[in-house]
Amino acid sequence: MGQKNRIDLNSDVGESFGNYKLGLDEEVIPLITSANIACGFHAGDPGVMEKTIALAKKHGVAPGAHPGFPDLMGFGRRNIDATFEEIKGYVAYQVGALHAFAAMEGLRLQHVKPHGALYNMAFKNFGIWEAVAEVISRLGQNLILVAMAGPGRERLEAVGSKYGVRIAYEFFADRAYNRDGSLVSRREPGAIIHDRDKAAERVLKLIREGKVVAIDGTEIPLSADTICVHGDNPAAVMLTKKLRETLAGAGIEVAPMGNFL
Amino acid sequence: MGQKNRIDLNSDVGESFGNYKLGLDEEVIPLITSANIACGFHAGDPGVMEKTIALAKKHGVAPGAHPGFPDLMGFGRRNIDATFEEIKGYVAYQVGALHAFAAMEGLRLQHVKPHGALYNMAFKNFGIWEAVAEVISRLGQNLILVAMAGPGRERLEAVGSKYGVRIAYEFFADRAYNRDGSLVSRREPGAIIHDRDKAAERVLKLIREGKVVAIDGTEIPLSADTICVHGDNPAAVMLTKKLRETLAGAGIEVAPMGNFL
Amino acid sequence: MGQKNRIDLNSDVGESFGNYKLGLDEEVIPLITSANIACGFHAGDPGVMEKTIALAKKHGVAPGAHPGFPDLMGFGRRNIDATFEEIKGYVAYQVGALHAFAAMEGLRLQHVKPHGALYNMAFKNFGIWEAVAEVISRLGQNLILVAMAGPGRERLEAVGSKYGVRIAYEFFADRAYNRDGSLVSRREPGAIIHDRDKAAERVLKLIREGKVVAIDGTEIPLSADTICVHGDNPAAVMLTKKLRETLAGAGIEVAPMGNFL
Amino acid sequence: MGQKNRIDLNSDVGESFGNYKLGLDEEVIPLITSANIACGFHAGDPGVMEKTIALAKKHGVAPGAHPGFPDLMGFGRRNIDATFEEIKGYVAYQVGALHAFAAMEGLRLQHVKPHGALYNMAFKNFGIWEAVAEVISRLGQNLILVAMAGPGRERLEAVGSKYGVRIAYEFFADRAYNRDGSLVSRREPGAIIHDRDKAAERVLKLIREGKVVAIDGTEIPLSADTICVHGDNPAAVMLTKKLRETLAGAGIEVAPMGNFL
Of A93, A182, B137, B257, whose Cβ has the fewest other Cβ atoms within 10 Å? Predict the structure, then answer.
């Protein structure tokens, strides 16, 4: 968990659907290095996937799948009591669908990051991480699994080892952390860091020192391979720009996680 | 269009969805050599796709994609006024999704056969064949495109040449043909051949002589690489069994189209 | 909870979808008095709803709504972490949609019975019963809410009183009961009663004596307004026929719950 | 087709879905008198329908159903080759669903206006108008059917008479008209009128004189009961405001179509 001189920036993109536009993809994709692309279950559709892959290609951004529950109405944010078998099927289906659009542009997928409720449920039920890792392993494309840096790391490492899957850990630039390395709930005061300078400083400290200041003021060790940023509103894009500037000024290379993991 | 000594048998399978069962897949898959597997738009779901791929693997049947319109309520049988761009996206998405399930079982997809309204519309609007061929070409997996033997063959050949895509032509064992090589409409008397012996004889004549007797009694030249059979009812399965016996008795090899195309 | 001389028989019907057929509606609807009709979220579609309402009308069966979660792939059987507001919207939407088909045939809806996961979740989270009762109350059609007879009755009565909604309690003819009036889990041995004579006897005892013999042999008091029967397989239809005969032989009137509640 | 002193203003609203927001409903609903509310097939969902009904109630706007094809991905704008029976089912289902949300707020629906491809197809295939009118007639709620003022009026009148359904004719404030009363195709230059003053003047002339100046400069007779305005962008809202001011300045009453039809 020591010093690094490079980092990845990932963001959820391709979340539009049909006539519905969501997110500032054109603005955020040029700023990131890894794109988590929705695959048509909770967001995204074939046309949106095609356009998002094209945008990623244009800006040299590594594409990855962002599979979610089949719940467009709930944007994949509601827990669904699906079996591991069902989850494996959902992940395989979505990764495969996105893979086709990448292949048509001569690209390969780099990673898989579960979306919304699927991501959150996985931290309470590691069988979901196993399910996703098993799919990645069986797909045989050497995809990286993206998960949150924090308390569950040892168990995630074990899942990665069991299935021979690389795991990238992500840090949230605009979120406060508890002393145990978990995220402060959005319902708590101070959970979101709105100050761009402060957020950029935190990322810098994380990369340089492998540390983050928790909400209680204590300094905790934390290591991450990629920083999760957002593109769903202008302020989020501004934060991402600020991050890029700060990282450039500090001589830290920004590159797709697959380049160094 | 001369004599052959081998043929493929294809059937639409994997059309169940969730709690809904459709088709006698367990019975028909052991009898065929190429499986057209629904991909979740007009029928099929991730769990069904996984099971169907497993069944195909077990019986040495070559899996292929059977993409359709996103119209589960209409089973993909209703014309939808989609653009070529939309159709390309739908086909890529579905082929990619099925590819994942095949890859997880160590299989590769062999072919793509458009389903229902998409298939029928394509014969009236060859831009659809171009769209599907372009997707196949860009996917780079050397997939075979399955289309109906009959009047449009020259134009299909041109599409295949343009995109570097192999085309397999299919013959319908239980359907009567017009003098121009097109299918007799289901609304016409005699359109469906219910007599299993007669249907098997027609297939044999097609393979051996490259000829079929049209509904008006004339003998017309027709060549096909694969015979389309059905598994949606017991009589259809019986016909397929009869076909297998007839072909075996005649010393005609039955093999996946990819083995000889 | 004393003796009665009439009872309602309800069954889940209208669960087909598009090209998919599910359930022996033509056989079971003539045998029941109240039909729980799927409304297009977990099963059913507009065409199926229209046909099912017509069948109910033909046989003098009172139609009711069987709303479920928007989860066709999971047949509404998976818990979805929806808010009460979302659930109210789902129930209102589905009841309204079915109401239209009833109105077009000159019928009024009689009842609402939540389906699958929505029904099961409600017994663990009575806020769901409140949500459904509130919708019924606000719809102003005096619909009956159908719920399971058993341990939660007092709380259900309170919900009914609060919203001015009549509640019908249902008994499962083919299920064993625990001593506390709850259903024996399907995972336990003896949970399902396959013996038609025994099942019919239990229903008779319930109606005449307000009692049921629990799985541990004790006799417990239980009162119900309607018996839930099934039409998804021939054996279930046979049981329903047997029930009708037994009830007729015992001089017990079979009538829609709305006639006597 | 003479002078009138009142008019209705209608707009398509409630087109958001889940996490996706579409249209400036909060801004346009206060300016109109009749709201065409999406019903969940091509746009809208239960939560959106509830909120839109509440907005309509708050501003004294008469709610109506805006049913479309089951094609969320295509926003109901693609022709689907559905049968009249299927269309009847789709319309009944959606009108019923919206009716429930209106009933819960103590409102009644005023009208039905087919959306997108369903609306456009109906002018080429009057069997669709018959289908919609039949549903309205059988629903027995005396709903008004909204259709375009122009060439098909006599046939629409005949449909209305046959089914006992009132028809409201709508005029498009921002669209140029051909000499025969049809809309100039959006692909033609001059099809859209961007000048707000000019658009308002046209509406005034229509109401006062029953006339409109066609794109070729000729004055043609045209009569309408309601003006279709838009709320999908700020300019459209500005036009609607301008219209309201112009109508107020001219002493023309603006009221829901149901008040005077």
Answer: A182
Q: Which helix (H) or strand (E) holds C137?
A: helix C126-139
Q: Which residue from B74, B80, B117 is facing D78, i.e. has the nearest CB?
A: B80
How many independent structural domains does chain C possess? 1
Q: To the nearest whole percent, how much of chain B has pLDDT over 90?
A: 97
D64-90: per-residue pLDDT in tens? 999 999 999 999 999 999 999 999 999
Q: How confident is the model at residue A4 (pLDDT cuts 50, 70, 90)?
A: confident
d(CA D132, CA D92): 8
Phi first, then psi: give them for residue C29, nearest 5 degrees.
-60, -40
User: Quick one: pLDDT at residue B3?
Assistant: 60
What's residue A3's pLDDT?
60
- The verdict on residue D71 lying in a domain is yes
Is residue A144 a contact partner of residue A257, using CB atoms and an 8 Å limit?
A: yes
Interface of A with D in 23-42 (CB under 8 A): none
CA distance D75 to A101: 23
Torsion of CA A242, A247, A251, A256, to 10 degrees: -130
Per-window interface: C 54-113 vs A, CB < 8 A:
70-71, 73-74, 78-82, 86
Average pLDDT estimate for B211-234: 96
Measured distance CA(C168)–CA(C166) in Å, rounded = 7
First-residue to last-residue Cα distance in chain C: 14
The phi, psi pair for D113, rounded to 5°, reads: -130, 115
For residue C179, what are its two tokens? 């001593």
pTM higher than 0.95, yes or no?
A: yes
* DSSP secondary structure, B97-141, as one string: HHHHHHHHTT----EE---HHHHHHHHH-HHHHHHHHHHHHHHTS
- Determine, yes or no, domain membership for C245: yes
User: Taking CB atoms and an 8 Å limit, are B46 and A139 in contact across chains?
Assistant: no
Is it the case that residue D1 has pLDDT exceeding 90? no
The residues pairing with B36 across neighbouring beta strands, listed in sequence order, are B12, B64
When CB atoms are compared, the residue of A49, A104, A139 closest to B103 is A139
- The answer to whether D52 and D24 are in contact (CB under 8 A) is no
CB contact under 8 A, B79 and D82: no
Q: Give this complex's ipTM.
A: 0.96
For chain B, the 3-state helix, strand and coil shares in percent, each to the nearest 5, are: 40, 20, 40
Give the residue ranges of DSSP H helices in C3-44. 25-28
| Amino acid in the structure at residue B193 | I
Q: For residue C50, what are the domain limits?
A: 6-259
> Whole-number mean pLDDT of chain D?
96
Q: Which residues of B touch D86 (CB under 8 A)?
A: 74
Say how far apart CA D114 and CA C94 lie, in whole Å: 20
H helices present in chain A, as ranges = 25-28, 46-58, 84-104, 116-124, 126-139, 153-163, 196-209, 234-249
Q: Do B80 and D70 touch (CB under 8 A)?
A: no
Between chains, do C81 and A78 touch, taking CB under 8 Å as contact?
yes
Give the CA count within 13 Å in the CB-facing half-sphere of C221.
4
**In this complex, is the C-beta atom of D17 within 8 Å of any C-beta atom belonging to chain A?**
yes
Q: Tell me: the pLDDT tens digits for B109-148? A: 999 999 999 999 999 999 999 999 999 999 999 999 999 9
Q: Measure CA of the first residue to CA of the last residue in chain D; give whole Å.
A: 14
Structural tokens at position C184: 């024996």
Asked, for residue B1, whether it belongs to a domain, the answer is: no
Which CATH number is B152's domain given?
A: 3.20.20.370
Q: Are B203 and B177 in contact (CB under 8 A)?
A: no
In a domain, D1, yes or no: no
Distance from CA of D82 to the nearest CA of B (A): 7
Using CA coordinates, name the residue in chain A closest to B90.
A46
Q: Would the pLDDT of A1 be above 80?
A: no
